[in-house]
Amino acid sequence: METRIQQWRTGTGVRVLFVERRALPTVDIRLTFNAGSCRDGAMPGLARMTSNLLLEGTDHRDAGDISQQLEQHGARASTRCSRDTAELNVRSLSHDAHLKPVIAELGECISGSTFPAAALERIRQRMLAGLAQQDTAPMEMVEKAFTAAIFAHHPYATSPGGEPASLQSIDPDALRLFHRRYYVAANATLAVVGDLSRQEAERIAEQLVAQLPSGEPATALPLARACPAPCVVRIPLDAEQTHVSIGQPSPPQGHEDHSALHLGCHILGGAGLTSLLARRMRVERGLSYSSASRLTAGAAGGRFQMKTHVRNDALAEALAVLRESLQELLECGPEADALALARENLLGSLPLQHASNQDLIGHVSTVGFYDLPMDHIHHFTEQLKALDAQGVRDAMQRHLDPASMTTVTVGPESAINAVR
């Protein structure tokens, strides 16, 4: 059954999406700002550092006070920053005696964060340590290089975690300017799921965002475009295996071909051991225990990606298998059995993705932030049911071009320099 999403706007103009669920006496809340790393500009890491410091102190409370107030009422709050969004996530008991003080505390934090110097240095060192760790992890290295290569000069190209030099240059003034520009009502979406009536949800929504200035929405991003020619990025790393990513930008969230592309990608490498890549790479050739494809979507574009890690001496064969498998799917379309199995798998997993309030809040927030139809899941489900092999092939041919894809390899020089 389709989840009923109610929506309205607060007095300050924040769009609210609400789902009433009475099974448990809890409420999940996600306040989303169009303030992800795509807004970093010349200072990579600024958006994530702002997000990380949001609950570290106000004029009246320090981080310890804030944490103690939340714990006293059994609530949990966290922040997260991706390329598109900066989020405040809250889980609380729904009884007014607990929920009201929690919302009051967090409402003051989101509008009145002061970015204390001591907290800034602590978060800076934590982010720098994270970057240092990523620089020695092949999976992180290939992901970062792949994203930078396919998005090139687009704002999505920079990592949300920033770069060491940029992180060192961020000061409280830069954080305050970013916060003042993007943490405003016109740039926010609020999702609420749980044990509340519509009237109660309206009240806590007003309370949470009452102190936000009206502001202006963030400017729209240009669409990400595929590179006109293939690109190969080789990153030397002394390791027993080589990590590989192949792909390109894909259509943005809400595109009419998303369901067909999603199904095609699932057939190619998203359905575990039954997928085409798993069969070709693992079962038939024993090249890799882990080969997959995935499709993501953002406001200005997504990523189509095939990835694996293989023995260094098997790299050339693995690259050939990945590319040939995709080419075959583009030329011939999926086999009937593979299409039916992938469709059944996707349709069967959808209810589980929204089984809990914490699962559902992600869906509701996505619908609000990307301005998707209120019946998005129903529409997506009906599209999956209606798709045939021709529809999947046509969509993949429209948006995926092996001749312009980027290949990133991370491994020993002797292995990565020997292949194209």
From TrEMBL:
Domain Peptidase M16 C-terminal per the UniProt entry, residue ranges: 169-346
Top-level lineage group: Bacteria
Ranges of residues in domain Peptidase M16 N-terminal: 20-158
InterPro entries to which the protein is assigned, alphabetical: Metalloenz_LuxS/M16, MPP/UQCRC_Complex, Pept_M16_N, Peptidase_M16_C
Any Pfam family matching the protein: Peptidase_M16
Coiled coil location: none
Full protein name: Pitrilysin family protein
Lineage: Bacteria, Pseudomonadati, Pseudomonadota, Gammaproteobacteria, Chromatiales
